[in-house]
Amino acid sequence: MPIKIGISPKIILSIATLYNDVNRIFMEYIDNSLDSAEDLYSVEENSYKRPVEIALIIQGRDFRGGQVQIIDNCIGITNFSKVVQSIGFSDKKVKAQPWINGQFGYGIYSFLACCEKLEITSKLQKEDALYIPINRDQFEAERQEDVVFPDPKKVRKFDFESGTKVCLSNFDKTCWRQVDIVELKSEIEKHFELLLARKNLSIKLIKKDDSIFNQDEEIICKSFDYGQYDGEVWEDYAETLSFSWGKKNPVRTTIKPRKPIHVYIKITTGKEINKRPVFISKGRRIGEIKDIKSFKSSHKSDLWDHPNVTGYVDLSDFLDPTIARNDFRNNNNSKALYNYLIEIEPLILDEIKNVNKKAEERHYQELEDKLNEALSKLARIDSMMYRTDYISGDKVNLEKNGIGKHIDEESGGKDHGKDRDGSRSGKGVGDSLGDGKGIDNGFGGLPGGDKGGDNALNKEASNPFEDTGFKGQEKRKSGFNIRIVDREPDIDNETKKPIRSSLIGNEITIFKQHTDFQDRVDVSRKREAKITQRLITYLAGEITVHYKDKFHNKNGQPEYNKKLFIDLVSFVYEFEKMLKDLSGKNLADLNS
After folding, report:
1. Hey, what CATH topology would domain 3-223 get?
2. CATH 3.30.230 intervals, the chain
3. CA angle centred on 39, ends 32 and 132, rounded to 5°
4. Whole-number Å distance between alpha carbons of 502 and 492
5. What gap in Å lies between CA 530 and CA 350, rounded to an integer?
6. Phi, psi of 25 (to 5 degrees)
7. What is the Cβ-side half-sphere exposure of residue 433, based on CA atoms within 13 angstroms?
8. 165: which DSSP letter?
9. 3-class DSSP state of 509
10. In the predicted model, is pLDDT for residue 366 greater than 90?
11. 489-518 pLDDT, tens per residue?
12. Stated pTM of the model
């Protein structure tokens, strides 16, 4: 007996416009396959009783001959007539007929949004396979009674003992261009995230190669592994939900879901993973929480859209999706669920704050390492430049208390090349100089060493933060250390104002809470600190002041002249050059 549809064909075509992404259309048919296997699933073991295999196969070079097939070895369709006719309601809750999509039974007709033809072949165990074609042009009829499908035909051959094969063909040109195996993998892994974690389930994508090489591309879809990222987890199982209604005399309504609402939120440390928390209903993703319009939250930006926050809210069957499956129907259940989420938001935000603080401390330590490395190199260059200037006859007064002072430890000086007793056993700056190399042909030259050039950066060189001792004694190398501390700045005893930085011993301390520092850090709405060029200049200036002060206190005070300021500014410029690659970077990206 011919099969008739149960709704106006024009309405069916109109509903098809909801599908503006061809990948979501394929999700509907994979969804139906998974529903068909539900009777084989064991909740206790989180496994199917036998291997369940679903394959999506892309074949063809262009939209005219292209096909997409979805094949499974599940239970099969028990009633073809109901599948075709049941639009507007669904038997999905009835286990005898699980193939009809969602609560509307529309999934079978989603093909109308992308192609001309749908063919369904399905087989129940120990029965013949049945086949039925459905064409888009049939829905151009004016009246419901004019749309009639023939009786399903028997087919002898089928790949499995039971299962279903869906074939979509005669694609619209623009839709065929969207068919991409990599994007499909991403969409499936997002859409069926929790279901893919079940044992004995395989969802495979195959792109057929029609060339003479016959090299098919094959991809296996996998569940998302939250454990691969470091971070903190906030988790809850809500067994009761409630909300209040009424303004004058509020009434509290409490609802107990059939299954607890599982909230799993992970705040990652390190790199952003850009996988926002999602709502999951009946094992299927509905959408990212930040995009659900019916959920009115004041923390969609700083919580649900935070680049380091991921996870899901598993609703089981507590809420009913809208027909577009991108939101939920407004009822008491949704009010209770949303009220619960708003109540727990401060708890999750506290956890985000703690994780962010720990991460920021680590990221600033990485910035400290970059600053220390740059200053170490620049100090060696500056030390050599200072000695070269002195030897070449620049007027630098190294008198201290009327006693002449020169630079020891193979660094040369006024009597370079001589030891203190006047002999020439020592080495001066003029000895063993290699090719030398400056930074961007800029600030001075480097001692060449045996291999010259860059190798010299690793050579010992006198800098104001190293205690060289006397000739013949072992060096007591203390080095220097730059620290960016997250506390209120110290107060200057004279000016009574907060200081930007300080030098104690060999440690330069920069106060991050100083307003001048904070004004130079670009913080986005997601609280991700970014290094600006202004901050680089600020850091270079603060460090240079303490470095030069230490330098001249150790090596002797030069006469006051314009060259002092030129030297100071030149050092800042060279420091900026060394740090230029940091400009515009997020703190979190410094270790990449």
Report:
1. Heat Shock Protein 90 (3.30.565)
2. 228-353
3. 40
4. 10
5. 22
6. -65, -45
7. 14
8. E
9. strand
10. no
11. 999 888 999 999 998 878 899 998 899 999
12. 0.65
With b for 16 or more beta-carbon neighbours within 10 A and e for fewer, the 252-280 pattern comes to eeeeebeebbbbbbbbbbeebbebbbbbb
Return d(Cα 338, Cα 516) in angstroms, integer: 42
Cβ-proximal residues to 186 (8 Å cutoff; 6+ apart), any chain: none
- Are 26 and 117 in contact by the 8 Å Cβ rule? The answer is no
Across 417-431, 463-477, 544-558, least confident range: 417-431
Query: Which of the residue ranges 151-165, 209-223, 303-317, 408-422 would you say has the lowest mean pLDDT?
Result: 408-422
Closest CA to 293 of 330, 266, 319: 330
Three-state SS at 263: strand
Residue 72 host element (H or E): strand 67-72
* Adjacent-strand bridge partners of 72: 54, 164
User: Cα 430 from chain centroid?
Assistant: 54
For domain 228-353, the CATH architecture is 2-Layer Sandwich (3.30)
CA atoms within a 13 Å half-sphere pointing along the CA-CB vector of 27 = 23
Instruction: Kindly provide the b/e burial profile for residues 192-218, where b requires at least 16 CB atoms within 10 angstroms of the residue's own CB.
Output: bbbbbebebbebebbbbeeeeeeeeee
Domain with CATH 3.30.565.10 in the chain: 3-223
Note the pLDDT tens digit of each residue in 122-145: 999 999 999 999 999 988 877 777
Give the span between the Cα atoms of 567 and 564, in whole angstroms.
5
